[in-house]
Amino acid sequence: MRCFATAGRILSLALIVACSGDDGGTDGNDNGNDDADGSAPDAASIACDSLIPRQFGSGGCRLVLVSPANCEAVDFSRLGYVEFAWSTETTFCEGPHKFFLAGHPSATWEADNGFLIDLASTDGSFVALGNRGSQYAMTRNIGGVVRLVEADLEGITTTTGQYHWTVAGFFALENGGSVAGSGTFTVR
């Protein structure tokens, strides 16, 4: 599994991925994400369904994705990075939060076509992730921001140009945790 150097344990992508209707094929039975001839569709035909459902456990933690908007085309060249932000809606969500980003189709996720980063709480200041210029800030009762550079997507494959991301709390759902439903984006 690819990962960033962070304090905290690294988990398999399969622990976050609960379900998906995308079979990864090009036969037309995969949420419309591939053309029948196997070529990538244009951006207007990409299905932007949330493949990981939003789930709030009994502990009161509510994680919600803020940006980029679902199905947004992001531009790394404008600032040199793209911000991925989420909110706790001012609920308390025990850290570390887990940031998950993966390629497409979802059938490739268990083959580690993506990465998972454990994000410990900060005082609101940004902390470096690796040595490429990526960074994050996270507080357990407000939410967080991960700033990724385009090089962070290297090695993640996608048949459509589409990527998926989500955030989960420290605790598993059965122990009161929360998972913000997944969002999708493309790169300009």
The proportion of strand residues reads: 25-35%
User: End-to-end distance, in Å?
Assistant: 26 Å
> What is the ordering of alpha helices and beta strands?
EEEHEEEEEEEE
Q: Spans of 5+ residues with little confidence (pLDDT < 50)?
A: 1-41
Give an account of the 3D structure.
The protein has 188 residues and is mainly β. The protein has one domain (13-20, 50-187): Immunoglobulins (Immunoglobulin-like, Sandwich). The protein has one helix spanning 76-79; strands at 55-56, 64-67, 72-74, 82-87, 97-102, 114-119, 127-129, 134-139, 143-148, 162-168, 178-187. Strands 1, 3, 5, 6, 10 and 11 form a six-stranded mixed sheet that branches. A hairpin with a 4-residue loop joins strand 7 and strand 8. It is globular. The model is unreliable at 1-41 (pLDDT under 50).
Structure in a nutshell:
The chain has 188 residues and is an all-beta fold.
Secondary structure elements and pairings:
Elements: E1 55-56, E2 64-67, E3 72-74, H1 76-79, E4 82-87, E5 97-102, E6 114-119, E7 127-129, E8 134-139, E9 143-148, E10 162-168, E11 178-187
Parallel strand pairs: 3-11
Antiparallel strand pairs: 1-11, 2-4, 4-9, 5-6, 5-10, 7-8, 8-9, 10-11
